[in-house]
Structures are given as structure tokens and as C-alpha cells.
Design brief:
The protein is 40% helix and 24% strand. The chain is an alpha/beta fold. It folds into two domains: 87 residues, Orthogonal Bundle (Arc Repressor Mutant, subunit A); 199 residues, 3-Layer(aba) Sandwich (D-Maltodextrin-Binding Protein, domain 2), CATH 3.40.190. The strands form three sheets. Strands 4-3-5-10-6-9 form a six-stranded mixed β-sheet.
């Protein structure tokens, strides 16, 4: 018994038990149609149609039972297929996530793996950008979700945030720095040194945060502003000065650098626009990946 045979049987009945009309509607020959109906009846071990009467075809009682059964099954199948299609449509799409350049992606990649196992039809892409580009991209709808510092979005009424990760800050300096071999090193040892910092216009809240921390330890940093992280790294490689990065920065693993972990934390957030109607974003926001307890970051 095939779906084709059932479809042919249902079409004959729907065409007023006319083999001729059914054959025309199905675009098959009448002998082929007759063959399939006989084959279906033989497998079911019943006569579906009574063709003994001249110029008349009738449904047998058994044929009527099978007609009702097949009709109901096809109707239910059609309904289930449509519902399944809706589910697939809801669980497909694109989720565009952006992350700060220079950061270790391990935790985010783990979240991506878990999410994509649950929703395999969603294309989860990760883009790495600088501080300014993250904010601009979100506000221009280039990204659905950021992992960023929420201070960047103060005053933006259409932006939602949720704490994601707490990460210790580190003092980063060259392995050729005069303090590189000092034991029991602390932040006060750098009070007379140059603090290399990115342009204050790009990230003013970071400068304020670092300055507040240093003041709490008893000194005011001697700033020298540079345009980006790469410029800071080059300046440090000369053997003088220091900077404060977070513990996610990959450069700390470079053997030409040393770092000192501080008792001060960067708090990262998930950031998204409240009016973003992307179904993939909604699924992520409702998922266990998003709703897990915020991590305390890297142990101190």
C-alpha cells in the first residue's frame, strides 16, 4: 500500500466515483488508475469499489470505512506537517553576536556550541570589533547581541542589558620592565610609571574606573593616551610603562609580557535592543545558555 494508491482512491471518490474524471485530474491513464485501485483493494483484502453495475460505480461498505479513515489521516497529516513547518520556521534564522576584539572567546564559543545543539537550524555568527564599532553596530541593527560593557550604553533607552561575566582586571607590562622580577608586586609599585591608555574619547568610563581604583590605592596615574590596543602593546614592548586590561585579553599569555591580577573587576553584560524582533534572539534570551547564573569569571 502506497501513498499514491491512497491518493488515487480518495480522488476517485471526490470526483463522484468517476474513473474518467479522476484520471484527468491526476494526469494518469484510466487503466493505470484501475490497476492501482485493484492493487490497494488486494492488499487490504477487501473490495473498495463495486464496479459490477453497468455505468455506475459504488463505494462498498468496506470502501466507505477506508475512505473515512484515509480522509481523516490525510487531514491530520496535513495539519501536523503545517505545525511542524511553523516550528522549524520559529527555530531557524540568524543570530549575529559581536564581541570585543582582543578578548578570549572560549566562554562565548562554549555557549554557542550548547545553543546550536538545541537549535541546529539557527546560524550563530560571532563578529569581533573594537569598542566604538560594537556600540555603533548594535544601534544600527548590524548585530543582535553584544558581549560588552554596559556603561557604553548609558542614556540609551531602547537598550537592554544583563550581567554575563565578572572578570578581574590585570596590570600588564613587559617582561623587560624594571619591575618584572620584583617579588610581592602590587599596583603601588607602578605609581611613578606611565599608564598607557586608549583615547579617552573612545572609552571615557574605563579611564574613570581605572583612575578611581588607583586613587583608592593612594596615587593618581600618569596617563599617556594612545589610539588603540595595538599601539599600547607596542609601547609596552619597549620595556617601560604599564596598562590595565581585563583578564580576558589574550596578549597576557604572550611570554614577552607579565601581568599582575588586581582585586578589581570588569563586569561584562549581554546587550541587545528592546525592539529587536529577531526570533533567533528571542530563542537565545529564553534559553538555558542565556539564563545560567552569571559566572564569576577567572579565579583570582
Amino acid at each position: 500500500m502506497t501513498d499514491l494508491e491512497i491518493r488515487y482512491f480518495l480522488e476517485i471518490v471526490s470526483q463522484g466515483l468517476s474513473f474518467t474524471k479522476a484520471a484527468q485530474a491526476l494526469h494518469v491513464s484510466q487503466p493505470a488508475l484501475t490497476h492501482h485501485i485493484k492493487s490497494l483493494g488486494k492488499e487490504l483484502e477487501v473490495q473498495l469499489l463495486d464496479t459490477t453495475k453497468r455505468n455506475a460505480v459504488c463505494l462498498t461498505p468496506a470502501g466507505k470505512l477506508y475512505f473515512d479513515f484515509f480522509s481523516e489521516c490525510r487531514e491530520k497529516f496535513s495539519k501536523v506537517r503545517n505545525e511542524a513547518k511553523v516550528l522549524v520556521d520559529q527555530e531557524s534564522g540568524n543570530l549575529r553576536v559581536a564581541y570585543m576584539s582582543g578578548w578570549d572567546l572560549t566562554d562565548l564559543l562554549n555557549s554557542k556550541e550548547v545553543f546550536c545543539k538545541t537549535f541546529p537550524h539557527i546560524d550563530f555568527s560571532i563578529t569581533v570589533r573594537g569598542i566604538r564599532a560594537l556600540k555603533t553596530g548594535l544601534l544600527r541593527d548590524q548585530y543582535d547581541l553584544l558581549v560588552a560593557m554596559s556603561d557604553q550604553f548609558k542614556g540609551e533607552s531602547n537598550v537592554c542589558t544583563r550581567e554575563y561575566l565578572r572578570v578581574p582586571y590585570i596590570v600588564l607590562f613587559s617582561s623587560k620592565h624594571p619591575l618584572a622580577q620584583k617579588e610581592n608586586l602590587n599596583i603601588m609599585d607602578f605609581k611613578n610609571d606611565i599608564f598607557f591608555c586608549t583615547n579617552e574619547e573612545d572609552c571615557p568610563f574605563l579611564k574613570r574606573a581605572h583612575e578611581t581604583y588607583c586613587k583608592s590605592k593612594g596615587f593618581i596615574p600618569r596617563y599617556q593616551f594612545l589610539p588603540n590596543m595595538e599601539s599600547i602593546v607596542l609601547a609596552l614592548q619597549n620595556g617601560n610603562g604599564y596598562t590595565i586590561f581585563d583578564d580576558l585579553v589574550r596578549i597576557k599569555n604572550d611570554p614577552t609580557f607579565k601581568y599582575l591580577r588586581l582585586d578589581n573587576y570588569l563586569i561584562l553584560h549581554y546587550v541587545w535592543k528592546a525592539d529587536n524582533n529577531n526570533k533567533a534572539l528571542r530563542l537565545f534570551l529564553e534559553s538555558c545558555v542565556f539564563n545560567k547564573s552569571p559566572s564569576s569569571g577567572i579565579s583570582v
